[in-house]
C-alpha cells in the first residue's frame, strides 16, 4: 500500500522567527551549495507545491529565468521544481506562466485535501501567509525550518501566532554556513 501524501510546511527563517525582514528582503537566507543539496534531497519526495501569489512570483523564475540555475545543485533544484505540480492560490493573479501549474482562487480545506489526494508524493505549502491558513485548518503534518544565522528584528513571521500544534523532532542537520535545518512531525 502506498504511503499517504503529507502536507509539509518548509520555510527558511531568521533565528528570531521571520521569513522576510521588515523591508521584505530575505537575502540573509541565501543557501550554500551544501544547503541546496540537502533541500534537493528533500524535494525528491515532493510532487506538488502550493503557493500564494507572492511566493509563486518569487519562485517561477526557476522555470522562466534559466540563468538562475548557475551551479550543479541549482540546476538540480530547477529540474526538480519544474517536474513538480504547482497550485497557485490567488484572487488577483490573472494567469500562470509555468508548466504543470494551475490557478485556484481560494485556499480551503477541500483544496488542500484534493491536492493531497492527487499527489504522488508529499505536498509542500510555501510561504508563511498561505501556510498560516493551513495551520489554522489543522492540516499541516510536517514543519521543516531552515534556521538562518541572522536576527532581523521584524518582518513576516515564519509561523502564525494564533496556532497551537504539538510536534516531535524527527531530524536535525547542521550546515557549514551556520544554517540549521530541523524537521518536526505532528505528535
Fraction of residues in H or I helices: 25-40%
Query: How can the largest sheet be summarized?
Result: 8 strands, mixed
Provide a count of the helices. Answer: 6
The averaged pLDDT comes out at 96
Radius of gyration: 16 Å
CATH architecture designation: 3-Layer(aba) Sandwich
Poorly predicted parts: none
The CATH H-level superfamily is Dihydrofolate Reductase, subunit A
Cα separation of the termini = 23 Å
Task: Give the overall form.
Answer: globular
Fill in the CATH topology: Dihydrofolate Reductase, subunit A
Strand arrangement, major sheet: 5-4-3-6-1-7-10-9
Describe it:
The protein has six helices and ten strands, in the order ββαβαααββαβαββββ. With 187 residues, the chain is α/β, with parallel strands linked by helices. Strands 5-4-3-6-1-7-10-9 form an eight-stranded mixed β-sheet, with helices on both faces. A two-stranded antiparallel ribbon has the order 2-8. Helix 1 runs parallel beside helix 4.
Amino acid at each position: 500500500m502506498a504511503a499517504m501524501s503529507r502536507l509539509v510546511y518548509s520555510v527558511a527563517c531568521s533565528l528570531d522567527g521571520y521569513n522576510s525582514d521588515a523591508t521584505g528582503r530575505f537575502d540573509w537566507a541565501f543557501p550554500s551549495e551544501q544547503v541546496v543539496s540537502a533541500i534537493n534531497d528533500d524535494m525528491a519526495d515532493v510532487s506538488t507545491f502550493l503557493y500564494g501569489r507572492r511566493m509563486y512570483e518569487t519562485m517561477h523564475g526557476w522555470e522562466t529565468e534559466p540563468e538562475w540555475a548557475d551551479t550543479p545543485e541549482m540546476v538540480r533544484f530547477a529540474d526538480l521544481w519544474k517536474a513538480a505540480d504547482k497550485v497557485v492560490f490567488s484572487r488577483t493573479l490573472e494567469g500562470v506562466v509555468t508548466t504543470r501549474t494551475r490557478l485556484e482562487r481560494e485556499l480551503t480545506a477541500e483544496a488542500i485535501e484534493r491536492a493531497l489526494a492527487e499527489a504522488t508524493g508529499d505536498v509542500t505549502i510555501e510561504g508563511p501567509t498561505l501556510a498560516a491558513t493551513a495551520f489554522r485548518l489543522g492540516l499541516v503534518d510536517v514543519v521543516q525550518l531552515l534556521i538562518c544565522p541572522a536576527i532581523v528584528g521584524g518582518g513576516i513571521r515564519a509561523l502564525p501566532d494564533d496556532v497551537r500544534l504539538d510536534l516531535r523532532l524527527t531530524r536535525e542537520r547542521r550546515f557549514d554556513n551556520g544554517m540549521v535545518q530541523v524537521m518536526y512531525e505532528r505528535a
